[in-house]
Amino acid sequence: MMAKQNAYTMRDVARLAGVSISTVSAVVNNKGIVGPELTAAVQKAIAAMNFSPHAGARGLRTGRTNMLGLVVQDITNPFFVEALRGVEDEAIQHDYEVLVCNSNDQADLELRHLNALYTKRVDGILLAPTDSYSARQALFTDRGPVVFIDCVPIKIDVNCVVTDNFEACYNGIKYLAGLGHHKIAVICGRLIHSTSIDRVEGCRKALQEMNLPIHEESLGQGDSHIESGYSIGLNLLQSPDPPTAIFTLNNRMALGILRALSELKIRCPERVSVMSFDDADWAEVVRPSLTTIAQPTYEMGKAAVDLLLQSILSSKEQADREPQQILLKSTLRVRESTAAVTRD
Amino acid sequence: MMAKQNAYTMRDVARLAGVSISTVSAVVNNKGIVGPELTAAVQKAIAAMNFSPHAGARGLRTGRTNMLGLVVQDITNPFFVEALRGVEDEAIQHDYEVLVCNSNDQADLELRHLNALYTKRVDGILLAPTDSYSARQALFTDRGPVVFIDCVPIKIDVNCVVTDNFEACYNGIKYLAGLGHHKIAVICGRLIHSTSIDRVEGCRKALQEMNLPIHEESLGQGDSHIESGYSIGLNLLQSPDPPTAIFTLNNRMALGILRALSELKIRCPERVSVMSFDDADWAEVVRPSLTTIAQPTYEMGKAAVDLLLQSILSSKEQADREPQQILLKSTLRVRESTAAVTRD
DNA sequence: ATGCTCGATCATATCGTTACAATCCGGGAG
DNA sequence: CTCCCGGATTGTAACGATATGATCGAGCAT
């Protein structure tokens, strides 16, 4: 029906409004230097043609894209979705948009995403790294500001926003021990992330201080999905000397534990207490409702964007400043799944 | 320390490799017309400078960006996350990238996202519309191909990929009725989405055929979040003549129902059966595990991308083809939360 | 009148890439 | 020897926006 219709450009708008391209540009960018009648004429023309500026061309000229990249380990994890919401809300408030990339726990995909983001010339990147190598890559090749979120590449000073995982777990274990639990199993994901490492360290410290043993064998087994929580739970609960409390360092593994418990008809919290890291909307709905350590996830996303924007601004003036680390506090949400140990 | 360092361009690469810019371009784009030794020289230079082409400039010249936009109603709904995964996987396979936008159930935000995507000149848009108005806007202003996903603007023929909501619910009700339930309550979200409307119609048809009444008062109340399921559940279960089966048309509202049940100490499925639309990872872990109607969500994302790409290609040749509707089948997953009605 | 200032408007170079036409060169046919 | 062909390489004009300096008047002091 209609011929190949290319989008209108400023040239077209200028022609229709009877002004120069520069004037159109000034109006579009609210420079405030164009007289009222010309402004009106231009706006009318813009509306009539449904004109919208070509972001690529603009970015080419200005060197900025007003886009941020967000790379997360696993978008099916509600934790990252909540962080994403914080990121988007804060970004949109500063007139930035967010390119969301899911690396799906695969290092090669993560690297691919990072390269793609660079090619798009995003103004900055928020990275929850799956892989320490691509994280370093992202940092050291001078491709613009990066802020790490949730998880930090080991032994490098970087801009980051994380929760105090060590303290959170330290307090968590103290809480369980305070309920009288002496046999506490800690289940965590792969020990390649700073997140897991810090959490385990927090547990270890607390256990040591109270002279309690740590179930070493169940430590590095999980992969943060339901199934691994389930199978580890089965093993643990059917062992000759089962723990009286289980602390999973991730919320979905806790679901697996609950499933294992109900399958083995072991009552919770009467025989075994369960506590998990990360809150989720189902945590207080599930029976028994789940005691969790909740991170301020949404705020984490917001804070990360603030830090990144700050970093973008300052990187134009002074190339390198001290990397800034923002440490957020978590809170213990006690619900039904944890209780004092019963002597029998 | 170091001065403001601008990224390298093809010009720089060409200079270092001792060739022309055109040659660099040909190598970068694998045109296969450059001799082996020059190709090697260029690649070496590219690697040395860590060169990456400027996507904005490329898009400006070629008129394509290799980006797709995905706009979803609510990213905290696992349903959309699963669709997103399908979209990303399929897109990446065709060398496209995906710009994810969350409209957070807000029409104005959705419109803003659509405009932003257009300004970015994405090659096509996947839209799970919150608002029928911006959906029309997206369609009629000739801003490139759009494929609707999950939910369709009412009374317009469009490219879309949806599940057969009518049939799914029709079968769902027949299943419940087959278990002996005569008092079935249907809880659904706001009746502004084609999704909800079709589902309710399916329920209505089945109920009519079996001469069963439909609880009109609980129909249009929900908002698809846990809380609304919870409060509607409380009302329903404490009413003088409570239903023996509850069918929620969304998975998170089902969580709310379960919570209401356990709070009122009403046993499920002994006294009340619960069934929900949409599967989720927690559905089979929760006790009682939840009977659901599962949509092929991941495949939906994939199919939508395929349709969109096809639409992008053909839109260059023939401006308008018949809009294509892809209808997917859902499957009933029977679990513990539904059982035959008990006579007492 | 003349020159000056200042605000509004305009003309044009430029950003980094690709498309296309032009060029170059070696080798085979006449 | 000349001509021509075709593959490899190059030069240059776009793409659509913004930044910058030029231009143009009107108003005002001299």
If you had to describe this structure to a student in words, what would you say it looks like?
The structure is a homodimer. With about 350 residues, the first copy, chain A, is of the alpha/beta class. Chain A contains twelve helices and eleven strands. Chain A has helices at about 10-15, 20-30, 35-50, 55-60, 80-95, 105-120, 130-140, 165-180, 195-210, 225-235, 250-265, 295-315; strands at about 65-70, 95-100, 125, 145-150, 160-165, 185, 245-250, 275, 290-295, 325-330, 330-335. In chain A, helix 5 links the parallel strand 1 and strand 2 (about 95-100). At the A-B interface, helix 4, helix 5, strand 2, helix 6 and helix 11 of A face helix 4, helix 5, strand 2, helix 6 and helix 11 of B. The structure holds a DNA duplex (30 and 30 nucleotides).
Major sheet summary line of chain A = 6 strands, parallel
Task: List the secondary-structure elements of chain A in sequence, H or E.
Answer: HHHHEHEHEHEEHEHHEHEEHEE
How do the strands line up in the largest sheet of chain A?
2-1-3-4-5-10
Strand content of chain A: 5-15%
Q: Name the shape of chain A in a single word.
A: elongated
Q: Would you tell me the overall average pLDDT of chain A?
A: 91
How would you describe the oligomerization state of the chains in this entry?
homodimer
Identify low-pLDDT runs of chain A.
Answer: none
Number of helices of chain A: 12
Strand tally of chain A, please?
A: 11
Amount of helix of chain A: 40-55%
Ends apart, CA distance between termini of chain A? 83 Å
- By secondary-structure content and strand pairing, the structural class of chain A works out as alpha/beta
Largest interface: A-B, 59 and 59 residues
Rg of chain A (CA only): 26 Å
